[in-house]
Design brief:
The complex is a heterodimer of chains A (249) and B (379). Chain A has 249 residues and is an alpha/beta fold. Chain A is built from 6 helices and 13 strands. The model of chain A has no long low-confidence stretch (mean pLDDT 94). Classes of the chains: A alpha/beta (249), B alpha+beta (379).
């Protein structure tokens, strides 16, 4: 059995977001790039499954659609423990382009289990996993918070309103994972870091279709204004402020 | 010149930072309060490969350069210098010393296990009456032919309890003064070795520190490093490397305190505006940033010289003196920026201030560094 983990290269979650070119592009100056946190947890779960499986899971591959600048992030995944990596040499312009590139590669290079994070922390599109499953004509399960393999039985927990449901499926399938899939990402060991460059990172040309959407402009959310405190006894002032200043009532 | 880190160095820095921010932070205050050893952390850091990270892969180590090690020391020390000191002693004194000056049999027997962290190293030089004046060693290593008979007391020994491979300096030929000193590799479980209770310290309280007493301890002759009388030179050479680790630790303590001061200054208001908008505070933060950066560059340069096979004695002395003294100043100012909050334990900066003090004392006081520096420039 082979597991594929799709990883996005995203700005560190503490990055101060700025735009450039008249608010039409993200300003990447000085940005620290990381593995998208949900994807990193997916990789963590894949490693746990492989370690528990004995020989049953033969390898874990990470795949990324991105230019060469994403390779440090891919090598971090190799340092953490993935066995090999694929980079599809294309700019991830939108979810359609990413899913199309992934499916184009995976049609000739099938995997048993494909894991995608529920969304990427930069654009929060939540689209790639579902699109990819459709393009590949594979079953997919979304919002997966637990994934277990017992022999040939695959069990997934899926978060639903007010609880969770347990599903079973057969390989191959796509699981779109979220909180709960693993406890916390692993810290790469010194040995892992040194080994990362020795593991295969195959670069393949883009075989996917062009993006269907384009970014017109970006806006930051309005800055939070200062909080105004109103005495609990002074309902009249509160109503007055809500009506005349906030225009909320 | 190239001031950029390699991808691996950046990854190592990140790994150390992640460990510190996720794990060390959890119990650092409690361990400081109770003076509890960081046993579990040492084990985890061993599994991650930090202990023995610079030892050549030929002996089972990580084969990493000093700059990688310095980055790891800095990141761990931002949160918890009491844990990072064990790493410094193990890597830059014990592993470095045995790898550079030990023979193959000693490397096979000891370095291989130190390289993977299976055994932790300690460096036993200081004595009740021999600190900076390391030449006046009173611990005797009597030459008995096939073994040395060791008697005496060593003080302030980091990892005396957690560690099991001791590098011990002993006086064999008192009449030859420091030319009569030897260094022996001693297994901690050798009969005749006893540990005094854990020292109750001002700072680095969680660090494992004891006096170690030797009473008729037999150490095989083959455990002597180098020729007869090489011990003092060995200790000085090991300390040259050790200073890089402690200097990096001081940079980490200073940077940790500065980061906390910056964060606090952007949250706390006084006289109607954030305290970071008051010049009195903003200038303190600017002074901190310059000192941290200057200390960092001295440390990185010392590490670079060592990695590239150049002499680094002067560079490591300068790095340690400046980084340690800066750490003391910066942590003191960080407490000032946080005011009353800085003085209570929950906010960490008072602990960092207590930790900074030790970097001016161990592995050569700031005054000893100035002796090394002045002698070198007055040559």
């Amino acid at each position: 059995m082979k597991i594929l983990v799709c990883i996005s290269n995203v700005p560190d979650t503490t990055t101060k977001i700025r735009f450039t070119d008249n608010n039409t592009a993200f300003d990447a100056t000085g940005v620290q790039w990381i593995i998208n946190p949900w994807d990193e947890l997916a990789l963590t779960r894949a490693l746990e499954l492989k370690e528990a499986s004995g020989e049953a899971i033969e390898k874990i591959t990470v795949i990324n659609v991105g230019p060469q600048t994403t390779e440090p992030t891919i090598r971090k995944a190799l340092a953490i423990g993935a066995d090999d990596a694929v980079r599809i040499d294309a700019v991830p312009e939108d979810a359609y382009a990413v899913a199309s590139n992934l499916s184009s590669y995976l049609k000739d290079n099938p995997y048993d289990i494909i894991l995608c994070g529920i969304d990427s922390s930069d654009y929060n599109g939540s689209l790639v996993g579902g699109m990819l499953a459709e393009f590949l004509d594979l079953p997919s399960v979304s919002s997966v918070s637990k994934l277990d393999i017992d022999g040939g039985d695959i069990k997934l927990n899926r978060e639903i309103d007010g609880g969770s449901e347990v599903l079973s499926t057969v390989v191959p399938f796509v699981a779109i994972v979220q909180k709960g899939i693993a406890f916390e990402p692993r810290i790469p060991s010194m040995r892992g870091i040194m080994m990362a460059r020795k593991k295969p990172l195959n670069v393949v040309p883009s075989g996917g279709e062009a993006a269907l959407t384009e970014f017109v402009s970006y806006d930051l959310p309005p800055a939070k204004s200062a909080c105004k405190m109103v005495d609990a006894e002074n309902v009249k002032e509160l109503v007055d402020l809500l009506h005349n200043e906030a225009k909320a009532i | 010149m190239d001031f950029l880190f390699t991808e691996e160095q950046e990854m190592i820095r990140q790994a150390a930072r992640d460990y510190a921010e996720r794990e060390l932070i959890k119990d650092v205050l409690e361990r400081d309060e109770k003076a509890e050893m960081p046993t579990a952390h040492i084990k985890n850091l061993t599994e991650l490969g930090f202990f023995g990270m610079m030892v050549s892969p030929e002996w089972g180590g990580g084969g990493m350069d000093s700059l990688s090690y310095v980055l790891a020391m800095e990141e761990l020390s931002k949160i918890d210098a009491a844990t990072s000191v064990a790493l410094s002693v193990h890597n830059s004194l014990v592993c470095y010393g045995i790898e550079k000056y030990g023979n193959d049999a000693q490397k096979e027997k000891y370095l291989r296990l130190l390289a993977t962290g299976e055994r932790i190293g300690a460096f036993l030089l200081s004595e009740p009456e021999a600190g900076s004046d390391a030449t006046s060693q009173r611990t005797i290593g009597e030459d008995k032919g096939d073994h040395y008979l060791v008697n005496g007391t060593k003080n302030w020994i980091t990892s005396a309890n957690l560690g099991s491979v001791y590098l011990v300096t002993v006086q064999t030929h008192p009449e030859k003064k420091h030319h009569g000193i030897n260094v022996l590799i001693v297994d901690k479980d050798t009969p005749g070795i006893t540990l005094a209770p854990h020292e109750d310290k001002m700072g680095m309280r969680s660090s494992d520190t004891h006096s170690v007493m030797f009473s008729d301890v037999k150490v095989p002759r083959e455990n002597r490093i180098g020729d007869d009388g090489f011990g003092f030179k060995f200790a000085m050479k090991a300390l040259e490397a050790g200073r890089i680790g402690i200097a990096a630790q001081a940079v980490g303590i200073a940077a940790g305190a500065m980061e906390r001061a910056i964060q606090y200054s952007k949250e706390r208001k006084a006289f109607g505006k954030l305290i970071s908008e008051h010049q009195a505070i903003a200038f303190k933060l600017a002074d901190m940033a310059v000192k941290v950066e200057a200390a960092r560059n001295l440390v990185y340069k010392a590490a670079w010289l060592k990695d590239n096979g150049h002499p680094f004695s002067l560079a490591s002395a300068m790095a340690k003196q400046f980084a340690a003294d800066s750490a003391m100043e910066i942590t003191t100012e960080a407490v000032q920026v946080l005011g009353g909050y800085g003085y209570v334990k929950e906010y960490h900066v008072e602990r960092l201030m207590r930790e900074a003090k030790l970097t001016q004392i161990y592995e050569g006081t700031s005054e000893i560094q100035k002796i090394v520096i002045s002698r070198s420039i007055l040559k």
